[in-house]
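Hi V.,

You were right to ask for the full record rather than a summary. Here it is.
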Amino acid sequence: MQDIFGYVDQHRERFLNELFALLRQPSISTQNVGVAECAELLKRQMGDIGIPAQILPTGGNPVVYGELNAPGATRTILVYGHYDVQPPDPLELWNTSPFEPTIRNGRIWGRGTGDNKGQLFAHLKATEAVLKVAGRLPVNVKFLFEGEEEISSRSLRRFMEVNRAKLSADYSFCSDGPMLPNHQPTILFGVRGILHVEVSAKGANRDVHSGNLGVFVPAPAWRLVHFLNTLKDEDGRILIKGFADTVAPPTPQEKETLRKIPFDPVVLAGLGLPAAAPGAGAAYFERLMFQPSVNICGLTSGYQGSGTKTIVPHRASAKIDMRLVVNQDPDDIFAKFVAHAEAHGFDDLQIERQGGFYPSRTPLDHPLGAAAARAVRQGFGKEPILQPCMGGSDPDYYFTHVLGIPRVNVPYAPHDENNHAPNESIMVEGFFSGIKTTAALLYEVARL
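Predicted structure:
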């Protein structure tokens, strides 16, 4: 491993330049900007390393797939990542151009640095380092890089179902999301699910004067506000009937794990909020990983410019995300959401489902977790923290249930990576430690 790590250190500048080429290529899936071009670029970069790669259709944005077989290897690992990114807006809040990566204060700044191009690229550079130094990989490796993760991987499940044989493997691995606030590496064993819905209320066929006609026409904004008020009470309890019926509490082992996760009560202070109470860590992490939530992530109606405009808006809408935990089914939750609206007399509202992910988890005591821990110790030189799942969502379920493969996730990006926001970044040393961790993991998996 020292020779492989030495190769990584010797080629730092080239690795960064090649990563920058990938970061410069926009790949905004929600707007279909540069996605096909990015897939082609990624395929070429994989080919330059010696990974035979192909672009496979999905019915949506393509998958970039590559495969390397190691003679005599008895284990196969499926490495996942996504090459699509979020829109960079609002552009005026970026300190540098989002698609012109820049190194400053020990970080690489730019859209996709952490989510997920920088972390994805670490796997490719690890593969190159092992091939160049050892001449062969210790395990068979398959690479699955999708272009729709930022739009809920809407084509991935069908792609996996059709290509089960091609994607068969013993284990799956990815690096996505952030580390802990103290920059300590973490091993994630699952994800929360998510269900997106948009709720709309409509009135007249156009906006009208709030004085002349305001007392006669319906007010969609008030109608929507009244509905939203039925979803949660003042203490934050979710009021949708049956919403949490299938939620299971954490096991004793999971509770013990929660107590070991570092928690900084002043984290909220960086957001301009009062610091959390000391000792709130275990309760915070239990809520984050084992309890569902309902959030209003967008609320729109009427005039939003400067000054005033005296109208009754003819339309109002709210975007809602519901984070789900293991045993909750997005299909079931959507049906309960619609039933809740109807039961409260809001059957006139338009409710549109806009995608989501199933919750998923691999057991904490799975041997893949121990292999990942040994790899992290070598790559980062730190002891990793085990985490039952992350607060965010991704297509983990498709690996654990559709393909039947256990999966762990080791993030290489910092806690404050600003993914989905302006000034996204990844630490330079985090990128290189990630390369070394992936290289070590290939050998640790071979020993399982």
